[in-house]
TrEMBL record:
Belongs to the glycosyl hydrolase 13 family. It catalyses: hydrolysis of (1->4)-alpha-D-glucosidic linkage in 4-alpha-D-[(1->4)-alpha-D-glucanosyl]n trehalose to yield trehalose and (1->4)-alpha-D-glucan. The active site is at residues 268, 301. It comes from the Bacteria. This is Malto-oligosyltrehalose trehalohydrolase. InterPro entries: DUF3459 (IPR022567), GH (IPR017853), GH13_cat_dom (IPR006047), Glyco_hydro_13_N (IPR004193), Glyco_hydro_b (IPR013780), Ig-like_fold (IPR013783), Ig_E-set (IPR014756), Trehalose_TreZ (IPR012768).
């Protein structure tokens, strides 16, 4: 990385080893790693002047300082033939096939520059897709109502530049450039700035396991980015053992955290990275960057349930698919696909996630041909797990993108939601969930030609193994990801639209549960640990449990959940104060040791050690 002039107060610009850097108002340094190219030049778009040759400085690097400033459009010309965008482009106003643009990141003045984030245990996540919410400016306008729910962090699905005008973001090919369909980079910064002003953290979902299938030209001039011996489900695997490749992605992480002031990153499909040493190095570099000056959080999506990656100095938490999958089987009765691994004993699996984190901790998995999945996880705190009932994957990867509310009994969904919002794990909501939305969120792309056909037909073939889709006519009804109507169906209405009484009732439900969480659970999460989970007896096929946690203040939080259609039997009368119940008056049956159907009741009891709690909160430092 190179030095740059002193920055004005309130500005942030990360010095990368790659790409275009404004070193003076009218001078820009360009750096490109193109080890398979003999020559490289910078072509300035729209100017009638020859390409500016770049100097080969060794190890595949090319460099040039060019008299141009912010707003300049440019490409690289390799070996006099191949024209490519900058792989570290900060902005692509015309998309992946257009020129890159020189950006002066220090031009944006942050209004909330003193923001230092929030401790991880305070996090309540709200996942959203910028495009489906109308772009950066539209999301910024919605922030006050999101904060009013009791949410403390929004998590953005990937914003890197992708091919076409619409995409989930996981097919990105230019990982430093916010996609132009959402707005300009400074609009994304304004969104984050406004969130910080409301006390909201902002996390970003990043994809470091593959590049998208269209618009990625790196194999033409930097094939060393990729492994020759391995493919992921989405394309060639990335070679993190190579110094330049490792630096590219670590700098990308630091760039988002520094230049855009994101409060954390969610690493998509870490299991497909297949390099735990690199993941640990990424965490080390991020921790070194943040030091004690900011709360910066790292979250994994990791099918392998690698508990060894979680903890101090590593990753704060992992998305807990085990919680979702076991709860989903209980709520819907679905047993196909990855739900097969939970169908044998969904209540037992759910209980284990509440008591120990992962349901699979090295046991044979039906989804992995009986191979063991996961590592022991009971030693980790509850906050090492992000729990959810819906997210972009679990809704959007369904054939028709149905929301949970359309698949399960509504009272049971409320009961499960109460468990989600009050348990000591970190809860995540998916956009629209707080409204009780029944609007689908479907898989959408914007490809053309053969790739569009392959994506559409590949998705339909994927569902052919499901009993519900053995009929070809039913498969043909699966929405075409490239049809713009698929995207339109997935967009959320803005907050200015009229809300129904039903919507208001759902929002009140979420607000009330999160108010209880903020007052009684969140302050006592440092030092919290699980005490155990009991499966409750009852009539018919019992689907009930009671989970207990010792909170950091010495009190005990108990949550009793019944997702079944019959009463469940409690082993003893609750001791302490009931802090939440659904449905209303569910407590009336407790005198008979009965937990009503599709109900959730939470209570808190025990001596509260205020001195111990205050000591922990004063001495906790970063988290």
């Amino acid at each position: 990385m190179r030095s740059r002039p002193a920055r004005p107060s309130g500005s942030h610009a990360f010095d990368t080893s790659f790409g275009a850097t404004c070193i003076e108002p009218d001078r820009t340094r360009f750096r490109l790693w193109a080890p398979a190219s003999r020559t490289a030049a910078v072509e300035i778009e729209g100017e009638n002047r020859p390409a500016i040759p770049m100097t080969a400085v060794g190890d595949g690097w090319f460099e040039a300082v060019v008299p141009c400033g912010p707003g300049t459009l440019y490409r690289y010309r390799l070996d006099g033939d191949l024209a490519v965008p900058d792989p570290a482009s900060r902005f692509q106003p015309g998309g992946v096939d257009g020129p890159s643009q020189v950006v002066d990141p220090a031009a944006y003045r942050w209004r909330h520059d003193t923001w230092r984030g929030r401790p991880w245990h305070e996090t309540v996540l709200y996942e959203l897709h910028i495009g489906a919410c109308g772009g950066h400016a539209s999301v910024e306008r919605r922030l006050p109502e999101i904060a009013a729910l009791g949410v403390t962090a929004i998590e953005l699905m990937p914003v890197n530049t992708f091919p076409g005008a619409r995409n989930w973001g996981y097919d990105g090919v230019l990982p430093f450039a916010p996609d132009p369909s959402y707005g300009r980079p400074e609009e994304l910064k304004a969104l984050i700035d406004a969130a910080h002003g409301l006390g909201l953290q902002v996390l970003l979902d990043v994809v470091y396991n593959h590049f998208g299938p269209q618009g990625n030209l790196l194999p033409r001039y930097a094939p060393a980015f990729f492994r020759a011996d391995r493919q992921t489900a989405w394309g060639p695997a990335i070679d993190f053992s190579r110094e330049q490749t490792s630096a590219f992605f670590i700098e990308n992480a630091l760039y988002w955290l520094d230049e855009f002031r994101f409060d954390g990153l969610r690493i998509d499909a870490a299991h497909a990275i297949d390099d735990d040493a690199w993941l640990r190095e990424l965490a080390r570099r991020v921790r070194a960057y943040a030091g004690d000056t900011r709360h910066v959080h790292l979250v994994l999506e990791n099918e392998r349930n690698a508990a060894s990656l979680l903890g101090p100095g590593g990753f704060d938490a992992q998305w807990n698919d085990d919680f979702h999958n076991s709860a989903h089987v209980l709520l819907t009765g679905e047993r196909d696909g990855y739900y097969r691994a939970y169908a044998d004993a969904p209540l037992r699996h759910l209980a284990r996630t509440l008591g120990e984190g992962f349901a699979y901790q090295g046991e044979p998995s039906p989804l992995h041909d009986g191979a063991p999945r996961g590592e022991p996880s009971a030693h980790l705190p509850p906050t090492a797990y992000v729990a959810f009932l819906q997210n972009h994957d679990q809704v959007g990867n369904r054939a028709f993108g149905e929301r949970l509310r359309t698949l399960a009994n509504e009272d049971a969904v409320r009961a499960a939601t109460a468990l989600l919002l009050l348990a000591p794990s970190i809860p995540l909501l998916f956009m629209g969930e707080e409204d009780g939305s029944t609007q689908p969120f479907q898989f959408f792309t914007d490809y053309r030609g053969a790739l569009a056909d392959a994506v559409r037909e590949g998705r339909r073939r994927e569902f052919a193994a499901f009993p519900a889709f053995t009929d070809a006519a039913h498969r043909d009804a699966i929405p075409d990801p490239n049809d713009i109507a698929t995207f339109v169906r997935s967009t959320l209405h803005g907050s200015s639209d009229a809300t129904t009484p039903d919507t208001d009732a759902w929002r009140r439900f979420y607000r009330s549960a999160l108010t209880v969480r903020a007052a009684l659970v969140t302050p006592n999460l440092p030092g919290a640990r699980a005490l155990g989970v009991d499966l409750l007896a009852g009539d018919g096929d019992p689907q009930a449990l009671a989970a207990r946690w010792r909170l950091g203040d010495g009190s005990t939080l108990t949550i009793a959940l019944n997702l079944g259609a019959h009463d469940a039997v409690l082993p003893a009368l609750p001791v302490g104060k009931i802090v939440f119940e659904t449905p209303p008056r569910a407590r009336d049956r407790l005198r008979d040791l009965r937990l009503p159907p599709r109900a959730c009741i939470a209570w808190r009891d025990g001596e509260v050690n205020h001195d111990a709690r205050q000591h922990r909160l004063n001495g906790q430092g970063r988290s």
